[in-house]
What we know:
By secondary structure, the chain is of the alpha/beta class. The chain contains 7 helices and 9 strands, in the order αββββααββαβαβαβα. It has a 5-stranded mixed β-barrel with strand order 5-8-7-6-9, surrounded by 5 helices.
Amino acid sequence: MDEQVQQCLAELRARAQGFVPEVGIVLGSGLGxxxxxxxxxxxxxxxxxxxxxxxxxxxxxxxxxxxRFRDTPVALLQGRSHYYxxxxxxxxxxxxxxxxxxxxxxxxxxxxxxxxxxxxAPGSVMMVTDHINFTGQSPLFGETGDARFVDMIDAYDPxxxxxxxxxxxxxxxxxxxxxxxxxxxxxxxxxxxxxxAGRLGADAxxxxxxxEVILARHAGMKVAALSVITNFxxxxxxxxxxxxxxxxxxxxxxxxxxxxxLNVFFAS
Length: 268
Ligand code: HPA
């Protein structure tokens, strides 16, 4: 195991002896408030965990929280770093590998995304069924050995998707489903890029998540991802995409529905 991962494990085990999380959670832009749902056992700033990124984007706190979300022991990453921050697709390598090494069998990713579908308005929640990596980048560049040839069929685990469908229905939240396309950012997309993305089969667009999915599948974790739709993608009407709007909508309508879904999901 990587030395940084070992150091993080030692640090976390010293703070939360005997605590074994089952599910890792990554909270996206504007969704950090969901950490408030967790009954905290320990909470550490990323700065105390070797290899963890120091988040440079507003709306990302940079804390790892261990605790219980309803009945489920979880390890929650409050904030992520992105490919566009340093031009490296593997910035979430240490966090994902630490969650796996801590015992998380499942990784639940959340993000803010733009919608390509007229009926999926800002405030909606979309469960990701598959993705398109439009950046040409991989967090596994430089890895050796056969394990790097990760199979990406059903990368978004069918059983978890079914459980999320059931949780959303019982929470009374409409859950959209669709394909997420990863653009590098940090500029938002052009209308022509969004038209192209639609023709390629995308339903939502964002600047994160896909590298974490690849890392998690490489680590053998099951993955699920939920997007909070914060805007219509460029050229599809509505406001111009902006980071402030992303944070505002994620923290309000969509974030509230996400909270309701997860409260049922983690109680079951
Ligand atoms: N594009 C890319 N990323 C995003 C968007 C968008 O329209 N909205 C929220 N994150």
